[in-house]
Design a protein that fits this description.
heterodimer; A: mainly alpha; 11 helices; 1% strand; globular; B: mainly alpha; 24 helices
Chain lengths: 283, 627
């Protein structure tokens, strides 16, 4: 399929898939807590309602940062599904996240400030593993192009088991799920209030939600890449990983940032880099 | 030929003139004229077709060499005197050893040293000359306004020795031109030692106890590099009877490896890599233009220049691997240490150390891809870092502090400077711009050549992200309403700052052109092939850059359709002020403070670790080279 077409497809289909995933997440979370839970389509209703709300802000400029966060997340995911260079995708994603963090700084409230700070720590925690994942895939397939990696033939997870586990580990952080929901709590009664999103409301909050949908689809797409030679298995595993993330979210309490950073870097060094060492000796 | 000679000699002459000028107005005119001329000549040099045909020197080497030797001897005697006066016997020892090696070399040489070219200009030297001319020129211009404020308002207690200061700036610049154009190693060494001396004098400019101590530290470390440089020449002469840099690069591995390793050692000291990074951090006591000069256009760039030049010799050897590891360790340690620093200049210093580590890593890896990335990194780092230093200098004079925590709301107080700082930081850390493009290229090169080294890069770049973004956040965040500062920047300063911002911006925008015109021909000339990122990626990057650059446009609709409210403070806000009344009616002030991860990272411990690792790796490198 033409890369541009795939980009367009991502643009349209990703929010639908991402919203459904979010609805599914809330549903199984509720079931795990012996609640009934909202309908699967609830995230869409939420976003539609947010979209109609009054546009409140502490600083007039803060909303532009979020707009660009959304644009860049779409750009990142689009690049990924269009089959572009994996490292470029990683860098684009980082830039997107930086815009989000700067928006929270701009809002200049103590809670969003702490949220922004902690989001940065989280970025620092997952960034090495994300890069190592790209490097590992390159070493296994000799290309950084996602098309090439997908068309490689072999089951990547077979040669990259450590990297796969490390990647799943940092997905917990990337999805801002417990035990790594340091920067944005889902429940505003906690010490963080809503952390990084405290001062965003209405349409802007809706954009953050949508960016999250796009990002989820993109990240699960990356999980799929580990199983690209068996496409169906890949989809099952991607959904399985998502379910696992939700399960962990419900089982663990929040960790301190020291543990989050240390744990993620340790996992990266042992699982990720260990895998790279083995790969480089096999060459 | 005339152009090259003019670039080397005119700054020296300007330095002499400035030493004699007492009048501020005259000094300003000399600085402006010479800077303009040097910039114009650099651009003219860049426009010439390559390879440059230099022709013969107008004066025979029989005349020139003794003059150079005499000057160098004077320089050595002066350093000896400094060492004796400060009772710093390491300096004396290093200088005596270096002198002995040089005397031996001279006594052996004489007629044998003839025949080599003194000067050599290729695309790499042209790039370095451009950096030195444009960035260094901007610094000199900025220094005019800055030093006036420095002596009249900010630091009246420091003795005003401005003629000396400006003379040194220009001598420094001239020496750097000489260094990048020299092909003959003794000449290169001569200019190398001038930069060592200039940096010593400039760091000690304020003559406070701390400044003197740090200046001596810089001197001793750079003298250690000077000694290995001299040893490299002596060994090379004994083995090959030829002291040309180009000749060294072209010789086969075996004979050139030890001299190359020793020269890399010298480059590592000069570019403040791990066991030696403390001199560059100590250099922060000097006035800001000095820091900018040391960090961006001269001095440290001389070190990485030499390492990158030698890359073809050490590539694929164990020596190269060790050099690359020193760079990698430095990158990681520097990036982590920058997180813990709250003083702006210190953050910049650590970041310089880190980025140079990345360049040294490229030099050690030494493949065509790596060298390509390294040269680009030098360019982007020079412009962005210089801009940042100069901005911090301006802010320091206005806020009387260079602590990042005091810069909150700078975007309201000094909007122009804040935006320029943001441009510089974006150039240093945001995705489709300068330094990050190079980092990407470095990562690709490293994965191809030696994937294990990538561990330094992945962890280090995560850390760089953290300290840049939190600083950017501090600039854009607005704790309370603030008035704009009156007279944000003086004229000379603003010319320098605006032109540097423009250069940073253009370098990022025109990077494919820069690469195709200068870097690729140089790399292809040596390796027969060059690095690049591929057309498709360039297109995507242009697209990404387009998206990011639309961001300032969004401010056209600033505040439209938005209702402004007070932030949530967990209490009752007191309108219009960053305070709230909490439970029990107590009025609390809002304080926003960045994380410095002090509990986890410790600057002294980090630099100690870096010193140990750096020293071990360097020792292993020399051992590999000898065996």
């Amino acid at each position: 399929m033409n890369p541009w077409l795939r980009f367009l497809l991502f643009l349209v289909a990703a929010p639908l898939a991402g919203g459904l995933l979010a609805g599914w997440d809330r549903r199984i979370t509720a079931r795990m807590q012996s609640r009934r839970g909202p309908p699967i389509l609830q995230p869409f209703y939420d976003v539609l309602k947010l979209w109609q709300k009054q546009n409140l802000a502490v600083c007039a400029a803060q909303n532009y940062y979020v707009l660009f966060y959304l644009l860049l997340v779409i750009f990142t995911g689009g690049l990924f599904f269009a089959g572009s260079d994996l490292l470029l995708v990683v860098f684009a994603l980082t830039t997107a996240s930086i815009f989000f963090v700067l928006g929270a700084y701009k809002a200049s409230s103590p809670y969003s400030f702490v949220g922004a700070e902690r989001e940065l720590i989280q970025m620092m925690a997952y960034e090495p593993m994300v890069l190592l994942t790209a490097i590992g895939m390159y070493m296994a397939t000799k290309t950084f192009y996602i098309d090439g990696i997908a068309g490689h033939g072999g089951l990547l997870v077979g040669v990259l088991p450590g990297i796969f586990l490390g990647f799943v580990f940092i997905l917990e952080i990337k999805f801002r799920k417990s035990p790594f929901d340091l920067s944005a709590s889902h429940h505003a009664h906690q010490e963080l209030v809503r952390g990084i999103t405290t001062e965003f409301s209405g349409r802007t909050l809706a954009m953050i939600e949508m960016a999250h949908w796009y990002e989820s689809v993109f990240l699960l797409g990356w999980v799929w890449l580990f199983f690209a030679s068996q496409p169906v298995l890949g989809v099952v595993m991607a959904l399985g990983v998502y379910g696992f993330v939700v399960l962990v979210d419900n089982v663990f309490a929040r960790l301190k940032w020291q543990m989050a950073l240390g744990g993620a870097w340790l996992a990266t060094a042992v699982l990720g880099f260990g895998n790279i060492i083995i790969l480089s000796f096999q060459r | 030929m005339t152009l090259v000679l003019a670039l080397v000699l005119v700054p020296f002459l300007a330095g002499l003139v400035l030493l004699c000028l007492r009048s501020e107005l005259a000094r300003r005119w000399v600085v402006v004229t010479v800077t303009a001329a040097v910039c114009a000549w650099c651009i003219a040099l860049a426009c010439q077709s390559s390879p440059l045909n230099l022709g013969e020197l107008p004066v025979s080497r029989h005349v020139l060499d003794p003059i150079m030797m005499a000057l160098e001897a004077l320089l050595g005697i002066y350093i000896l005197w400094v060492g004796l006066r400060a009772r710093h016997f390491l300096i004396v020892g290093l200088m005596v050893a270096q002198g002995a090696v040089m005397v031996w070399l001279e006594s052996m040489g004489g007629a044998g040293l003839e025949g080599g070219r003194v000067l050599f200009v290729d695309k790499f030297s042209v790039i370095m000359a451009l950096i030195n001319g444009l960035v260094g020129g901007a610094i000199c211009l900025y220094a005019v306004g800055y030093m006036r404020e420095y002596h009249t308002e900010a630091h009246p207690e420091v003795p005003d020795r401005r003629p000396f200061f400006f003379a040194l700036l220009f001598v420094f610049m001239g020496a750097m031109f000489g260094l990048v154009f020299a092909d003959d190693l003794p000449w290169l060494f001569f200019f190398w030692e001038i930069t060592t001396l200039c940096s010593f004098l400039l760091i000690g400019y304020t003559q406070t106890a701390e400044a003197r101590k740090n200046a001596l530290r810089a001197l001793v470390m750079n003298l250690a590099g000077g000694l290995t440089f001299a040893l490299a020449m002596a060994w090379l002469y004994r083995e090959t009877h030829c002291l040309g840099l180009q000749a060294l690069i072209r010789t086969g591995h075996a004979a050139a490896l030890l001299p190359a390793a020793l020269l890399c050692f010298a480059g590592i000291t000069k570019s403040a890599q791990c066991p030696f990074s403390s001199w560059l951090l100590g250099a922060m006591v000097a006035p800001t233009p000095v820091s900018a000069l040391l960090h961006s256009s001269t001095m440290v760039k001389a070190g990485v220049y030499l390492v990158l030049r030698l890359a073809p010799v050490i590539t694929g050897t164990k020596v190269g691997l060790m050099v690359a590891s020193v760079g990698g360790v430095t990158f990681l340690i520097g990036s982590l240490a920058a997180i813990t620093a709250s003083e702006a200049k210190r953050v910049l210093a650590w970041s310089t150390v880190a980025n140079l580590g990345l360049v040294v890593l490229c030099g050690g890896v030494g493949t065509s891809q790596a060298v390509w990335a390294g040269v680009l990194l030098i360019v982007f780092h020079a412009v962005a870092k210089c801009l940042l230093f100069l901005c911090v200098g301006v802010v320091e004079h206005k806020l009387h502090s260079r602590n990042i925590e005091d810069m909150s709301g700078l975007v309201l107080y000094m909007p122009h400077v804040a935006v320029m700082m943001l441009i510089g930081m974006a150039g240093m850390s945001l995705a489709p711009f300068g330094v990050l493009i190079s980092k990407w290229a470095v990562l690709r090169a490293v994965v191809d050549a030696c994937p294990l080294l990538s561990v330094f890069i992945v962890f280090g770049s995560a850390a760089t992200l953290f300290f840049w973004v939190k600083w950017m956040g501090k600039l854009v965040e607005v704790e309370r309403p603030q008035e704009r500062a009156v007279n944000e920047i003086s004229l000379d300063e603003s010319v320098a700052l605006y032109s540097l911002s423009a250069v940073t911006f253009l370098a990022c925008l025109l990077f494919p052109l820069l690469s195709a015109q200068f870097v690729e021909p140089y790399v292809a000339g040596i390796y027969g092939q060059s690095g690049s990122l591929g057309q498709g990626n360039l297109f995507i990057m242009a697209l990404l850059m387009g998206v990011v650059m639309l961001f300032p446009l969004s401010f056209l609709s600033h505040g439209r359709g938005v209702t402004l409210v007070e932030p949530y403070l967990g209490g009752a806000n007191i309108p219009g002020s960053p305070r709230f009344s909490g439970s029990g009616g107590a009025v609390e002030r809002v304080v926003l403070h960045n994380y410095y991860l002090g509990g986890v990272l410790n600057q002294t411990r980090l630099s100690r670790t870096g010193e140990v690792w750096g020293a071990v790796l360097l020792a292993v490198m020399i051992a590999f080279a000898i065996l």
